[in-house]
Amino acid sequence: MKNMLNLIRAKRYALKFSEISEGIIKNGSLGIEELQAIYENAKNEEDVAKNAKVFDLSNEVEIYKKERRLFVFEIGMRNQILSKGIRMLSTLCSHLAPYWLMPI
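RE: above sequence
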């Protein structure tokens, strides 16, 4: 998430990838080469967000086009991470529920 936010922010200020590569977090969901390809193939911050394969930021892109506020991307990513965590926790609880009901 942080790498994608940094790429979006850097694209807004028209920085070169070489200027931000030191700040890239290693061992993220996407490799450095993939992040660089996304960044260099994007014309603007909306393109970076659209090509974020880990997140679906299409709704956030539309909001950003109107409001021009970068935090909409962070909120969108955080919401998706939270939703995934809730789904995983729900699945885990449903698998463990029969054990909770067993007498000791």
